[in-house]
Amino acid sequence: MTLIVACADLLLAQQPRRNAARADTTAMVTLARELSSDAMRGRGPWSAESEIVARGLATRLQQLGARPVFGNAILVPFTAEPRPRDTVHNVIGVLPARDGRTDGELVGLTAHLDHLGVGPPDARGDSIYNGFLDDALPMAMVLDVARRYAASPGDRPLVVLFFNLEEQHLLGSKALLARQDAQPFVDRLRLLIGMDAGAPAGEAMEWQLMGAVPDHPGARLADSLARARGWTTSASAARPINDVFTFSQRGVPILFPIPGTVWRGYSEAERADAMRRFDHYHQPSDEWRPDFPLTGTAFFADWVWSIVHEASNGRRALARP
Questions:
Q1: pTM exceeds 0.90 for this model
Q2: Which of 44, 135, 156, 254 has a CA that sits 20 to 30 A from residue 170's CA?
Q3: Taking the CA atoms of the chain, what radius of gyration do you get in angstroms?
């Protein structure tokens, strides 16, 4: 049994003792710590470790009751340049709606499973780009939301997508959309939420909603649920910085939440200090730290869960532009 599957089992085993409506930060950070451990060698492109992660995530989704979307497996193989002879996998599974259906309109949630692998060493001599915030913690957050959906499903099924080779110019999502059978799936998506680059160390009071321009019902829903928490949002157009961008180019309404610079209870100097300590984007030092605050993680995951929960309600119109 891999460490990742073992941690996924921990998430599942704890479920009866938890409030399904609340974020489980302990389980999330435990899984994210394993996903970003040195043993995973930075989940590099076309690596054995990224395949271990993919298989562990597929197992976790199966444990939650997810079913295949493409073919008969949650592991979806593909090849891509510059290594067209090497098969790797995306992980795609759909959690049934409350009536057991997996057809019809879908709400989607995605995070990428790969990172940068082993590269140039930093000043400490560390050459493993662990990717704790990018994107191990968001993967664990996606699974936490999926766990809550499985416990309290809506009218629209929830599809979970963990893409490979995102760091290689979004090759995993591009490969999926290049499939001959992709268009019917794309046509069913009413909202796709991307989670990337971790969670802020504090409760962010302002968020940029990338993909909310042009306006769509999912963006308005996310904004209303943010304002109910006392937050504000701003809208921006999709940019090619995450797999959700490739779907936006096919007409799917997307959201990619980006935390702003105002955090509850933090002065500007305190926030800047937290960013220096914890936000080490694309560096070997993006690794688990025992002093990483989980407040922002919980608020972020709870907000995304509330969006998914409301968006999966069949009474809520989610017409595509």
A1: yes
A2: 156
A3: 18
